[in-house]
Write a structure and sequence with these properties.
The protein is built from 9 helices and 2 strands. The chain has helices at 7-26, 57-60, 68-86, 92-116, 123-150, 152-163, 178-195, 203-207, 222-229, and strands at residues 30-31, 53-54. The protein has a two-stranded antiparallel sheet with strand order 1-2. The longest helix is centred in the middle third of the chain and has 28 residues, at 123-150. The model has no long low-confidence stretch (mean pLDDT 92). Residues 60-204 form the Ubiquinol-cytochrome c chaperone domain.
C-alpha cells in the first residue's frame, strides 16, 4: 500500500474503493423492466416508491422490497462493514481518504439511478436527495457502531429501523418475522469477523463471488442461519 497522505494513495484508494463499492451495490441491485416497455407504467409501493425487480437473498429470503431505498440501505450496510475493516488502516488520514472515496462512489451511482431509473431529471431535486442520503449514511454509521458496542439487541433494532423502516408488518401485511432481523445481525457479525482476517489490499479478491461460483464474504452463508438457530 502507498504511504499515507501521498498522491499515490489517493489514486489507489479511488480505484480500490470503486471496485469495493461495486460489490456493495450489487448485493441488492434491482431493475425497472417497464422502462424498456413503451407506455408501461412503473408500479408503486404503498409509500409511493417505484417498485423494481430484484434477485438474491435480501429480496427472496428476507422479503425486502426492490426499491431505491432498499438498495441504498443494503448498500450502506455493506459500506459500513467495509468501513469497520478500513478503520484498521495504519493512519487516520488513510481511513479518511478511503471513506471519502467510498461515499463519493455511492453518491455518483445513486444520482445516476435517480436520473436513469426513476426519471429525476432535475439536478436540484437530485442534490436534495443526495444530501438526505448523506445524512442517512452518518446515521447508519452511528447506529451500527452503537449496536456493535452494546450488543445484538441494539444492532438488531438499528437493522430493523434501516432495512424494514421500523415496521411491525412485512411487505404483504403479515406480522414481522424477527428471525429475519436476527439473520442480518448474524450476517454482519460474520462478515466483520471474516474481513478482519483479510489484508486491505486483498479485500476485493474476497468479498465478491469467487472463481467457480463460490460465494465471497458478502452474500448468504449457512453459517448465518446456524448462528440464529444456535447451532454454532
Amino acid at each position: 500500500m502507498p504511504r499515507p497522505g501521498t498522491a499515490a494513495e489517493t489514486y489507489v484508494a479511488y480505484g480500490m474503493t470503486q471496485k469495493l463499492f461495486e460489490v456493495c451495490s450489487s448485493q441488492a441491485d434491482y431493475s425497472i423492466p417497464q422502462l424498456s416497455q413503451k407506455g408501461a407504467q412503473v408500479p408503486k409501493t404503498e409509500a409511493g416508491e417505484d417498485l423494481g425487480v430484484g434477485e438474491g437473498w435480501w429480496y427472496e429470503d428476507l422479503g425486502l422490497i426492490p426499491t431505491f431505498s432498499t438498495w441504498s440501505q443494503v448498500t450502506f450496510l455493506h459500506m459500513y462493514l467495509l468501513t469497520v475493516r478500513l478503520r484498521a488502516l495504519p493512519s487516520y488520514e488513510s481511513l479518511q481518504t478511503y471513506s471519502r472515496h467510498l461515499i463519493d462512489h455511492f453518491s455518483h451511482n445513486a444520482e445516476h439511478r435517480m436520473d436513469v431509473l426513476h426519471g429525476l431529471t432535475s439536478r436540484a431535486i437530485r442534490n436534495k436527495f443526495l444530501k438526505d442520503l448523506f445524512i442517512q449514511w452518518r446515521g447508519v454509521l452511528a447506529a451500527y457502531d452503537e449496536g456493535l458496542v452494546k450488543g445484538d439487541a441494539v444492532l438488531g433494532a438499528a437493522v430493523w429501523r434501516n432495512l424494514w423502516k421500523a415496521s411491525h408488518t412485512g411487505p404483504h401485511g403479515e406480522d414481522m418475522d424477527w428471525t429475519k432481523v436476527a439473520r442480518v445481525v448474524a450476517y454482519m457479525r460474520r462478515v466483520i469477523s471474516e474481513l478482519s482476517q483479510i489484508n486491505e489490499a486483498d479485500l476485493i479478491l474476497h468479498i465478491g463471488p469467487r472463481p467457480g461460483g463460490k460465494p465471497g464474504i458478502f452474500g448468504y452463508s449457512e453459517l448465518d442461519q446456524q448462528l440464529v438457530d444456535g447451532k454454532r
